Amino acid sequence: MNRSPAPMPFIDALREAGDLRLPGSGLAWLDAARSENLEAFMAAGLPDTRAEAWKYTALRALGQRRFALGDADAATHPVDPHALALPGIDGPRLVFVNGVFRADLSKLEALPPGLSLQPLSRVLANDPEPLRFALSRQYREAGDAFARLNAALAGDGMVLRVAPGVRVGKPIHLCFAGAPAQGDVAWHLRNVIELGEGAELDLVEHHLATAQHKHLSTLVSEIVARDGAKLQHTLLQNVAEECTLIRRGSVRLGAKAQVMLHVLELGGALVRHDLHAELHGDEARFDTRGVFVLRGRQHVDTQLSIHHQALNTASESIWRGVADERARGVFRGAIVVAQGADGSDASLNNKNLLLSPLAEIDTKPELEIYADEVKAAHGATVGQLDERALFYLRSRGLPQAEARALLTAAFCRAVFSALPNETLRDHFSSALLAHLP
Amino acid sequence: MTIENDSPAVLRDNAEVAAALGRRYEAGFVTDIETDSLPPGLSEDIVRQLSALKGEPEWMTDWRLKAYRHWLTMPMPNWAKLNIAPIDFQAISYYASPKNKPKSLDEVDPKLLETYDKLGVPLHERAKLAGVAVDAVFDSVSVGTTFRKELAEAGVIFCSMSEAIREHSELVQKYLGSVVPTGDNYFAALNSAVFSDGSFVFIPKGVRCPMELSTYFRINAGHTGQFERTLIIAEEGAYVSYLEGCTAPMRDENQLHAAVVELVALEQAQIKYSTVQNWYPGDEEGRGGIYNFVTKRGDCRGDDSKISWTQVETGSAITWKYPSCVLRGDRSVGEFYSVALTHHRQQADTGTKMIHQGKGTRSKIVSKGISAGRSSNSYRGLVKMEKGAEGARNYTQCDSLLIGKKCGAHTFPYMEVKNPTAIVEHEATTSKISDDQLFYCRSRGIGEEDAVSMIVDGFCKQVFRELPMEFAVEAKKLLEISLEGAVG
Amino acid sequence: MLKIENLHARVEGKDILKGLTLTVKPGEVHAIMGPNGAGKSTLGNVLSGREGYEVTAGSVLFEGRDLLALEPEERAAAGLFLAFQYPVEIPGVNNTYFLRAALNAQRKQRGQGELDSMQFLKLVREKLKIMQISDELLHRAVNEGFSGGEKKRNEIFQMAVLEPKLAILDETDSGLDIDALKQVAQGVNALRSPDRAFLVITHYQRLLDYIEPDFVHVLADGRIVESGDKSLALKLEEHGYAWVAERDPALANEARA
């Protein structure tokens, strides 16, 4: 049965915006890719919960909102550089405020040899050709609406390349800040990251807000880790409480490549996080450690999918979720082992705490196995804090709220024990504690 | 991708699997018997004719028509993991019945009795299964029910659905569709419109059914679908254990089996429902076989009630069923134990839904999937803890075993938790029979096929334990036969 | 009974056995000793027919039959038994059921009648006594949740029930404390007979304190480099495996290279 689509101010606002001047506009292939994606997005609109990928995240309310495209003052918002800093991180830094690259806040001088780090807008102006493939991707799945929107409208982001065999000593700090503006603003960013063969990189991605706002941002990040490359990727998401963030990260691993991803999700009213990994070369390894801690009316939807496509590949995923007050946490963790990907070893563990009668957790671990020489397992639980532990702490004099926070933090913290940067690990702990109600 | 598709092991597997003549399907014979059937096709008129043929009261005809009209508005579901050839609902005959309808078991056509004898389900007085009352459904109608007298003395009603509609109209009207509404899903709606027969069980308050009840379903006629409807009601404190078995002849065409089973357990009642499903699975190339699209749901309506599903699924070309429990009563319990085995080109998508609504409700799910050949076997389950499910618990365990390199084993559990005192736990593993295990058995003198069935049997132990003894033995045998030629 | 001649075998493309020759007569107990990587376990696996072991040259005759041409279960029926170094767990398969299936499969192959459960139970009771095993072990699944010692004792118990002609004990002493070791050895000794031979593969001399061998062979780099009586084991204990290498110039050369 075809129903005529309900009016969607979200789309109307786009239509009314007319022709856009984005970095790279005028490049024939980019213009074509952008307009094709925009048309596809407008035609299909935002997905509804009948689409399996959006089963637990309704976008009706978002569809009723209007966002201005870009913030005219983004280049000049006063931002205290100290507010952007992370303890233990003092390497090169790339800063975007409301989607616009800020040279004044970034540190791009004296980059180590073999590392190329530039804002996308600059690459599009100077040497766009190498990005042609990455920026003319087509998205066809029903759940891919935001990837289309991003492909149509992203004008900036980070382009990072590490030459083969180069080990970048200091962590790269990538910082996305949201700041209050005139009305609600939307921006779209895109990262293109490539580690050459045997290259090593430590990347810290930080999403934060200088003050409260209700903006919408999308980020599509594509990482290629060639044979033998090693990436340590740490993501701290602490955006404004009332904003919307849609992030999609995909990573493709060559033979013997290793990627370790740590994620801490704290902020946002509506956050959707798609993480997709393809273990494409033999003996590649992909590990994730993630935590989301939600309160208020936060809705955070994490969709992890790991595809084992080559021999003797391994992945281990450990995720913890906490939902308090009226929050809703959604997690999907899919492991796919392709035919012939023998020797794959995949495990996923997802545990959740549901702390309030008005909160909700929906979790869906999945195994899709087409090879027989595999070890694949997953486990998921939803439960509460251990009453006995809680009582024990209270009997030792801790007030109830404090005891709960302590146990909740402990539940989450173990996930980050493998985070190599100790200072950063401590910072994660305190950020987590600060976020608990 | 650098994948060695042609490793020696794979080549050997293929050669030997090809060499094996595939499985024996022992129930694949056709009974030559005169049949009354409705012409193929589906319309309001056919629904009316069907209802008239069965001498149904008007309310039943109206109920069917309502379901039919609803069905017309529904789209055929599109399932992610199943490959289904389009079904032409106008090519199916919705009613087939042996010509000479017997009044009692003594009058049943000897050919029919012989059929059930061959299937190991004797119906005649001399050879009745000890302690098990059987209702035999042949194509669209029940051909006889054993032990009627003994059951009647206990106050238990066990009869065909057609008879129940005529003789126990009030009960049927009260409960039919109360668990699976007519518009619940595409195939449930279709079933509601055209169901021909099935079994009806009523266990009155406080009665423990004195014997196992069993229905044996047999599809015989070609170009027919079987749409049976089963309704089991256990009143306060009652107990019943019910078994169902299914077979069909080997035919090149796909035949549709779209049943609906409704269970109602009132306060402190217990219903144990066991299935050994061995519909014809099609041949090695996937020709023929039954499409088994079944809606089974139990309603733990009363406090402290319990519904337990146990299923062993080895047959059918495509299986799509999720026996579920709605745990409404406080402290009610739902259980699901399943073994699903797929071989050759079979596809199975099965699992359960446990909907926790009452306080202190508990559910347990144990699912064992075995995939061989080029088959595909998915567990799909939902555990839902609704707001009122104070202190509810669920534990789920899903294990998959792969035999061969061309099959798939998938696990899709959904967990939705809205109550902060509920606990949901899910664990799943996927593995193959390890070379070490096989070698260990062989080095002790046990041949490879025997070693495989021994290991598979061990893998399924937790589920077989839940079956009544005779069924457990049969299930084990079935598994062995179904796995023939699976290992090289 | 067993005649191994110039046996060469490789695993994953690597040559492990490089010309092993050994003859075992009924009633004899042979100990095969050697350092790690010498090929001790490979020998046991090749003899019992495990997949992945490629025989590139040589022959093995068992009671005059070409052992290498037989499937693992046929070797078992012929009277060969391997006590595994790491017995595998088989969840859900009852230990007694397993053993009866094995025994009856072997009897069937040999053209003997199968034992019914009463006869089998009687046999098991007798053997339990010899092995000092509690019947609780029998009710559990094969090796599932067994301790290291229980697994090894279960292997010897299976041997007692299956009554093989030639038993190969693959590092049966590994991972056992002294009490468990004694118990296992006691079981083995109880099964010694004029028509049964043993091949005891071990890294350490200590097992041979309890199972007294008639012959001791030193396996190094895929060959038997030294044979002798029980005293050879003691010499090895004293001097270590380096002593063997020193006495064999070919080995010493290889070690230097």
TrEMBL record, chain A:
Domain SUF system FeS cluster assembly SufBD core span(s) in chain numbering: 184-411
Signal peptide region: none
A UniProt-annotated Pfam family: SUFBD_core
InterPro entries, per database record: Fe-S_cluster_assembly_SufBD, SUF_FeS_clus_asmbl_SufBD_core, SUF_FeS_clus_asmbl_SufBD_sf, SUF_FeS_clus_asmbl_SufD, SufBD_N
Domain SUF system FeS cluster assembly SufBD N-terminal: 28-173
Gene Ontology biological process terms from the UniProt entry: iron-sulfur cluster assembly
Coiled coil: none
Family: Belongs to the iron-sulfur cluster assembly SufBD family.
Entries under PANTHER family matching the protein: PROTEIN ABCI7, CHLOROPLASTIC
NCBIfam families: sufD (TIGR01981)
UniProt name for this protein: Fe-S cluster assembly protein SufD
TrEMBL record, chain B:
Transmembrane parts of this sequence: none
InterPro entries noted in UniProt: Fe-S_cluster_assembly_SufBD (IPR055346), SUF_FeS_clus_asmbl_SufB (IPR010231), SUF_FeS_clus_asmbl_SufBD_core (IPR000825), SUF_FeS_clus_asmbl_SufBD_sf (IPR037284), SufBD_N (IPR045595)
Highest taxon above the source species: Bacteria
GO BP terms in the entry: iron-sulfur cluster assembly
Domain SUF system FeS cluster assembly SufBD core: start-end pairs: 217-459
Domain SUF system FeS cluster assembly SufBD N-terminal: 149-209
Family: Belongs to the iron-sulfur cluster assembly SufBD family.
Name of the protein described by the UniProt record: Fe-S cluster assembly protein SufB
Source species of the chain: Dyella choica
TrEMBL record, chain C:
Organism annotation: Dyella choica
Domain ABC transporter: 2-246
Keyword presence, Cytoplasm: no
Pfam families assigned: ABC_tran
One GO CC term on file: cytoplasm
GO molecular function: ATP binding; ATP hydrolysis activity
UniProt xrefs under SUPFAM superfamilies: P-loop containing nucleoside triphosphate hydrolases
Protein's gene: sufC
Keywords: ATP-binding, Nucleotide-binding
Protein name per Swiss-Prot or TrEMBL: Fe-S cluster assembly ATPase SufC
Sequence similarity: Belongs to the ABC transporter superfamily. Ycf16 family.
InterPro entries, per the entry: AAA+_ATPase, ABC_transporter-like_ATP-bd, FeS-cluster_ATPase_SufC, P-loop_NTPase
